[in-house]
Amino acid sequence: MTHIAICIGSACHLRGAHGVLRAFSALVEKYRLSATIDLAGNFCQGRCTEGVVIKIDDEIITNVSQEKVFAIFQEKVLKEGSV
Question: pTM for the complete prediction?
Fold first, then answer.
């Protein structure tokens, strides 16, 4: 199971966290991966000046925008298109 946590705390919220969460959710649905991906919003990951901050398993990724979600999803979740 892959765990994806998206910070929805104040700083990340202001930088578009809900759009990032919606984009990840749409991709999980599109690729029918809901059984293998745990997608959740959470609060502060300690990098408020680098938001939107996400964590995929143990890897923290900063400065995520809605426009970057597909590339991140492809690289980190689909493993460059293997699914």
Answer: 0.91
Q: Where in the chain does DSSP place strands (E)?
A: 2-7, 37-42, 54-56, 59-61
**Do the beta carbons of residue 29 and residue 14 sit within 8 Å?**
no
DSSP class of residue 4 equals E
The structure tokens listed for 67 are 């426009």
Residues 6+ apart with CB under 8 A from 68: none
Report which DSSP code applies to 66.
Answer: G
* Superfamily of structural domain 2-77: Glutaredoxin (3.40.30.10)
Cβ within 8 Å of residue 39, ≥6 positions away: 4, 6, 21, 24, 25, 28
Q: Are 64 and 53 in contact (CB under 8 A)?
A: yes
pLDDT at 59: 96
Token representation of residue 19: 């759009």
